[in-house]
């Protein structure tokens, strides 16, 4: 994975923004066992995922760790070898997908950017966007306490649809969405609402979303099954009729 990430970043001239996570609760029983992994004694698959994340970050640093063969097929530089290709700036462009305040703090301690989705552990019973905004503030506080010198990036995800024509209204016009609460892998989770309205109403609704205001990046989820042309229309509608009024760029 480090090899692939380094190569992709070099090919893209340092533009890779890589999000990683322990993953959502699995669809099969103990699926990690099929790949030869076992959680640590007394630990969980989430602990295993975070430990692998730490190893990934250590290797991205580019420090030598492997003893070279004294009779290599190709010449080696002196000292211990690192994984190649190495991209020096990539370590600062790793994002961790976090669903709780605790893992947001862990991500901040390890110097990763925060990626918060439309699902979060329900830790207070408050609206989703309020809890997510608090998660972001906890992340920032922990980041400062950890002594990192750069500014972190923070993203939130939303489903947003500006109703511009009859087709939009057919697809999303009846979507009077609200937060939903459910249980995933014994975790009480709150799922954020979708936004679908005429542009002026949409702007007013989004102004009240505390987490969007706290974040520096907004990821839009799109209905990819509806095709490229329609999704281009969805994005253009937001960029043209919603984003300017909210100061998004």
Describe this structure in words.
By secondary structure, the chain is of the alpha/beta class. 37% of the residues lie in helices and 16% in strands. The protein has helices at residues 2-11, 45-60, 101-109, 128-146, 166-172, 199-207, 210-214, 228-241, 243-246; strands at 18-20, 94-97, 113-116, 119-121, 154-158, 160-162, 180-184, 187-191, 195-197, 217-220. A five-stranded parallel sheet has the order 1-2-3-5-10. It has a three-stranded antiparallel sheet with strand order 4-8-7, with helices on one face. Strands 6-9 form a two-stranded parallel sheet. The radius of gyration is 21 Å and the shape is globular. The model has no long low-confidence stretch (mean pLDDT 94).
């Amino acid at each position: 994975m480090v090899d692939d990430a380094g190569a992709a970043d070099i090919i893209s001239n340092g533009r890779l923004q890589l999000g990683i996570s322990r993953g959502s609760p699995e669809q099969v029983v103990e699926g990690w066992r099929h790949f030869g992994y076992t959680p640590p004694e007394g630990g969980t698959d989430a602990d295993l995922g975070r430990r692998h994340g730490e190893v990934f970050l250590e290797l991205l640093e580019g420090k030598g760790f492997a003893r070279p063969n004294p009779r290599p097929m190709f010449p080696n530089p002196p000292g211990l070898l690192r994984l190649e290709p190495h991209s020096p700036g990539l370590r600062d462009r790793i994002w961790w997908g976090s669903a709780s305040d605790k893992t947001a703090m862990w991500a901040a301690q390890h110097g990763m950017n925060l990626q918060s989705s439309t699902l979060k552990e329900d830790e207070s019973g408050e609206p989703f966007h309020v809890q997510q905004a608090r998660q972001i503030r906890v992340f920032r506080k922990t980041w400062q306490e950890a002594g990192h010198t750069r500014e972190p990036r923070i993203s939130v995800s939303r489903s947003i649809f500006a109703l511009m024509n009859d087709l939009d209204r057919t697809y999303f016009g009846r979507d009077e969405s609200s937060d939903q609460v459910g249980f995933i892998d014994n975790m009480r989770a709150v799922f954020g609402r979708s936004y679908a309205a005429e542009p002026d109403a949409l702007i007013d609704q989004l102004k009240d979303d505390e987490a969007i205001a706290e974040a520096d990046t907004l990821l839009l989820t799109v209905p990819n099954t509806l095709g490229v042309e329609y999704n281009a229309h969805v994005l253009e509608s937001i960029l043209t009729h919603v984003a300017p009024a909210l100061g998004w760029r």
